[in-house]
Amino acid sequence: MRIVLVGPPGAGKGTQAQYLAKNLSIPHISTGDLFRANISQGTALGKQAQEYMNAGQLVPDAVTIGMATDRLQQPDAEGGFLLDGFPRNLGQAEALDGYLADKGVKLDAVLDLEVPEDEVVKRIAGRRICRNDSSHVFHVSYTPPKAAGVCDKCGGELYQRDDDSEDTVRKRLEVYHSETEPIIDFYKAQELVVTISALGTVEEVTRRAMEALGRPAA
């Protein structure tokens, strides 16, 4: 299957992408991984991206599209893929459509993870991370530490990242609404969008997604 995964920040796209890709036996291709791989490998596109990032500028769509299409040409993606974080805007969606049309294939579905805005804010703004080890992550409501502000695993101080503040989350949501949501309408016109609720446990959301895609969960 060839799938695009969309949803607001905090919808759990990264987690669901991993589970879905495993269930469907297709590669999970995320924008973050594409950037890291190209930059670490010193590719021409990676160097371009690094220059823009070093200058504090947004990486142009052409660079992101180039990274994504290069990745889609790798053998493991020939039989299908799950795109996470790409396309991020209408221009990227149109470019992806053009690329796939040239290859004589098309998307099977665009899976839209739906989460109420207040829940997004609650999920992200409630995160607390250990200063000693960033892999130690807690949540004030869902997975609170035994002692407020103290990591259960190492006793380190828990803090809220600047990116996780409520004001920052709401700004990220504004960007999502203005830039990414239009691609949902673009794909709805092609009758590709499958919308599911991203509320509940990871397992519940995965099962919901697999059923919506017409595949039994493993």
TrEMBL record:
Cellular component aspect of the GO annotation: cytoplasm
Domain notes: Consists of three domains, a large central CORE domain and two small peripheral domains, NMPbind and LID, which undergo movements during catalysis. The LID domain closes over the site of phosphoryl transfer upon ATP binding. Assembling and dissambling the active center during each catalytic cycle provides an effective means to prevent ATP hydrolysis.
Top EC class, one word: transferase
Residues spanning the signal sequence: none
Protein name stated in the entry: Adenylate kinase
Record carries keyword Kinase: yes
Species per Swiss-Prot/TrEMBL record: Streptantibioticus cattleyicolor (strain ATCC 35852 / DSM 46488 / JCM 4925 / NBRC 14057 / NRRL 8057) (Streptomyces cattleya)
Biological or metabolic pathway of the protein: Purine metabolism; AMP biosynthesis via salvage pathway; AMP from ADP: step 1/1
Superkingdom, taxonomy of origin: Bacteria
